[in-house]
Design a protein that fits this description.
Layout lengths: L1 E6 L7 E3 L14 E6 L5 H11 L5 H4 L28 E3 L1 H7 L5 E4 L9 H14 L4 E5 L3 H13 L2 E7 L5 H9 L3 E5 L3 H11 L5 E3 L5 H17 L7 E5 L4 H15 L8 E7 L4 H7 L27 H10 L3 E5 L1 H13 L6 H15 L9 E5 L7 H8 L26 H7 L3
Parallel strand pairs: 5-13, 6-7, 6-9, 7-8, 10-11, 10-13, 11-12
Antiparallel strand pairs: 1-2, 1-3, 4-5
Helix pairs in contact: 4-5, 4-8, 5-6, 8-9, 9-11, 12-13
The structure holds ligand F0G.
């Protein structure tokens, strides 16, 4: 297979060597994606090879990203790839959550089981591999917390210097702690995600920083494997719906590309529909999809949500996401802070748990189900993007009735579970339990 950088804009489609350090098309300013030409191995053989690799001990074969390397063939050599054991995340059946949403069944593909606790690891191992191939020494990103945690881990493991830029006061401590512990230079900027992305794009060249935001097409390649692994786990039978939260919309772009390529290459026989869920206070993509002409995205100037991972008002990958959601006959929905908080508690009650942004999926499914868009007998997979422990502060506040929306309105602890203080006395504890 031959890999190139290809402009995503249909009217341009300019092609560039895979080793160019471009984040957008130098001709038209459009987004770039990795394009492949050539012949993929026969599908039957590929499926067997991928399955057999699970039994090997070589780190590359054990990786839930590089195991599928035939579908992300942008490197000439895998010698310097750094794997931290990414991917290999479970597909978990969740009857309690299905019932809450009004579905017969529901499964969660839980990307929070990744080494740094989010789906970013699938993409980051690829982005860092490309940085090494290009001879870069320094990598950087702006982040709502998960990209920075992941980049810090992979860059440090690869011997690169990670520099992260984060919105001051608006990322969870769990994520900030990871960036510090993994050894990133961490700059807290007094601005929001969108403003800092513009800043970082301006100074990346000057500071010799290779950008590892999801605008980087190699990150998108790695995130494709989330879908490949999901299909493998399902015996290559696509669900009716794949539901994911939308922030900067890189993951939506990745899922759509994976589905397109898998269909083209004969790995699946039909496309599932993508449903992207945004938080009400940061829902520019929802508004775009609702507008009659679906022209250009109107940024939200001051995005607000307690699901800080998706607190983004000007998502970079919207042209790709628009194409992919439309191509699958998909949907975009928005959900309130209360809906996210309650859905999150229900996912917790399944013994699964996730961070707030991930819970937007269940809240969105419930809403789409109630509106009759998703049928009760539909086969639905929701992608939980981040681990429960990313944001414990939110959880404690919810269960103790202290959670408030960014505007200061109380969030009701519908499924609250308060810790109880009990005396050091077996009889009294028995009495509390009604025995
Ligand atoms: N869920 C979680 C837990 C995230 O961290 C993000 C994005 C998303 C969903 C949305 O994904 O941007 O591809 O649409 N986090 C980025 C970050 C922005 O910096 O960690 P998206």
């Amino acid at each position: 297979m031959h890999a190139e950088l290809v402009c995503f804009e249909a009217r341009c489609r300019a092609r560039f060597p895979i080793t160019e350090v471009f984040y957008t098309c130098p001709r038209c300013g459009g987004l770039l994606e990795v394009g492949y030409t050539g012949v993929l191995r026969p599908v039957g053989t590929l499926r067997e090879v991928w399955r057999a690799r699970r039994m090997n001990d070589a780190p590359l074969d054990r990786s839930g990203v590089w195991r599928y390397r035939e579908i992300i063939p942008f490197l000439e050599s895998y010698d310097r790839v750094v794997s931290l054991g990414e991917g290999n995340t479970p597909l978990l059946s969740a009857p309690r959550a299905a019932e809450y949403a009004g579905l017969d069944r529901l499964a969660f593909k839980h990307q929070g089981y990744n080494p740094s606790g989010s789906f970013k690891d699938n993409g980051m191992t690829c982005g860092v591999a490309q940085a090494l191939r290009l001879g870069m020494k320094r990598v950087g990103c702006v982040s709502t917390g998960n990209t920075s945690a992941s980049m810090a881990a992979y860059a440090s493991a690869a011997g690169l210097q990670p520099i992260v830029f984060i919105p001051h006061g608006n990322i969870s401590y769990g994520k900030l702690a990871q960036a510090l512990e993994y050894g990133a230079r961490t700059f807290q900027v007094e601005a929001n995600f969108d403003e800092i992305l513009a800043l970082v794009r301006t100074c990346a060249d000057r500071l010799g920083i290779y950008l590892l935001n999801s605008i980087n097409p190699f990150r998108i390649e790695g995130q494709k494997t989330i879908i490949v692994e999901m299909m493998e786990q399902r015996g290559w039978k696509p669900p009716h719906w794949i539901v994911l939260p939308g922030g900067n919309l890189g993951n939506t772009a990745a899922f759509g590309k994976a589905l397109r390529e898998m269909l083209e290459w004969g790995l699946i026989e039909r496309l599932p529909r993508l449903a992207v869920i945004q938080a009400e206070g940061a829902a520019p993509f929802y508004e775009l999809m609702r507008s009659a002409e679906r022209g250009a995205l109107k940024a939200v100037g001051q995005p607000e949500t307690l699901a800080t991972a998706i607190r983004i008002g000007d998502p970079v990958s919207w042209p790709k996401a628009l194409h992919e959601v439309t191509n699958t006959g998909g949907q975009v929905e928005k959900v309130s802070e209360q809906e996210i908080a309650d859905a999150k508690a229900v996912i917790g009650q399944c013994g699964i748990g996730c961070e707030p942004a991930s819970a937007a999926t269940l809240a969105g499914i419930r809403k789409l189900r109630a509106a009759g868009v998703i049928r009760p007998d539909a086969d639905v997979v929701a992608v939980l993007t981040g681990n429960l422990l990313k944001d414990p502060d939110y959880i404690y506040r919810y269960h103790t009735g202290q959670l408030q929306t960014p505007r200061g309105e109380a969030i009701h602890s519908t499924f609250g579970n308060q810790p109880e203080v009990v005396p050091n006395d077996p009889d009294k504890i028995a009495a509390v339990l009604g025995q």
